[in-house]
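Q: My labmate handed me this sequence with no annotations at all. I'd like to see what the chain might look like in three dimensions before we decide whether it's worth expressing. Could you predict it?
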Amino acid sequence: MSPAIDRMELARILARQVAGEAARGHNVSPAMRQFAEEQALKITEVIVATGVPYLLVDNDKAILCFTCGMLSHNPDDITQKYCGHCHKFHEDL
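A: Here is what I predict for the chain of 93 residues:
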């Protein structure tokens, strides 16, 4: 199994998801990037406090694994809370 990603890396991953344009490689204003990073840090604090190993993003159309950082749009992965990269169900992580 991959080692858990650190909190700052998780914040960067979440920031890319919060600022969907950045995730798609589009230019994002500095203000939007700062907002996304602030929101990602807030979300990260909640995640660390609750111990939830994943986050549903993009209106529940994707699942982000906090163990490896992979984002999956596979409907089966979302429904079953599964990480195809870790090859584990999130309840087992």
